[in-house]
Amino acid sequence: MTRSTLVKAVAERTGANVRDIDRIITAVYEAIRGALERGESVELRGLGTFRMRLIRGREGHDFSTGARRRIPDRQRVQFIPGRRLKALTRTAEGNVR
What we know:
- The chain is α+β, with helices and mostly antiparallel strands.
- 42% of the residues lie in helices and 28% in strands.
- It contains 3 helices and 5 strands, in the order H-H-E-E-E-E-E-H.
- The strands form 2 sheets. A 3-stranded antiparallel sheet has the order 1-2-5. The chain has a two-stranded antiparallel sheet with strand order 3-4.
- A hairpin with a 3-residue loop joins strand 1 and strand 2.
- The longest helix has 20 residues.
- The protein starts with a helix and ends in a 6-residue tail after the last helix.
- 0% of the residues are buried.
């Protein structure tokens, strides 16, 4: 599902204007992003939790020259699915793990 199909689906379910729904989804996205930038986690019950995770630096090598190089620490967004979302993936037809 893309952002535009999400906006249309929410507008159809609620009967609200597509522009209003687009502004609401933008506001939700910006609120989540702002919380993550401040180092906070965002929990959406039934869906899951977004949080920042530190990926430790390590030694690597440049494939073109073969020289060793240090890969620095970095932050990454991690999504941990909630219980209901996990249950959905476990019961979906054709789910192969």
